[in-house]
C-alpha cells in the first residue's frame, strides 16, 4: 500500500518530470477605482485596476484612539479578453477576490544612472466579486451577465 508513495518520495527532484514554476498572488480587498480600459502600443485592449488591502486588525494607541492598519495598493493588469466581460461592471468600493500572476520587471536606471528597484507586474488571472457596490443608475445588468 505504501510502495507507490515510497517510489515517488525516493526520486530526486531533478529526475522528476518537468513542472511549471508558479508565482501567484491572491488578494482580497476593495477596488480603489473603477477598472480603466486602455490600449497597448500595438492597439490591444487591456484593463487596469487597483485593489486596496490591509494587514492586521485595528488597534488602539496609548490615548485610546483607534488606529487603522496600513493600506497597501496593488495595480493589476487584465490582458485576457475573457476578463473584459466582467470588469466593466465592477465598481469602486466593491470587495473582490483576485488571483494574479506575479512577474518582476526591471526598474531600469534613474536619470543619474543609479539602478532603480525591480517592480512587480500583476497579471489578472481570476476575479470573484464578494460584495459589489452598484451605481444608482444600474439595475440588474451584472446578474444578467452571470447567468
TrEMBL record:
SUPFAM superfamilies per record: Nucleic acid-binding proteins
PROSITE patterns: SSB
Top-level lineage group: Eukaryota
Entry keyword annotation includes Disulfide bond: no
Biological processes, Gene Ontology terms: mitochondrial DNA replication
UniProt KW keywords: DNA-binding
One Gene Ontology term, aspect cellular component: mitochondrial nucleoid
GO molecular function: single-stranded DNA binding
Pfam families: SSB (PF00436)
Protein name: Nucleic acid-binding protein
Source species: Cutaneotrichosporon oleaginosum
Amino acid at each position: 500500500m505504501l510502495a507507490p508513495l515510497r517510489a515517488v518520495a525516493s526520486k530526486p527532484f531533478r529526475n522528476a518530470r518537468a513542472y511549471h514554476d508558479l508565482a501567484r498572488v491572491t488578494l482580497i480587498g476593495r477596488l480603489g477605482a473603477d477598472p480603466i480600459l486602455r490600449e497597448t502600443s500595438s492597439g490591444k485592449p487591456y484593463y487596469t485596476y487597483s485593489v486596496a488591502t490591509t494587514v492586521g486588525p485595528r488597534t488602539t494607541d496609548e490615548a485610546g484612539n483607534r488606529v487603522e492598519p496600513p493600506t497597501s495598493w496593488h495595480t493589476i493588469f487584465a490582458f485576457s479578453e475573457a476578463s473584459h466581460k466582467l470588469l466593466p461592471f465592477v465598481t469602486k468600493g466593491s470587495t473582490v477576490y483576485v488571483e494574479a500572476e506575479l512577474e518582476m520587471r526591471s526598474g531600469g536606471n534613474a536619470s543619474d544612472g543609479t539602478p532603480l528597484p525591480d517592480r512587480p507586474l500583476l497579471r489578472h488571472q481570476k476575479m470573484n466579486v464578494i460584495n459589489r457596490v452598484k451605481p444608482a443608475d444600474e439595475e440588474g445588468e451584472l446578474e444578467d451577465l452571470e447567468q
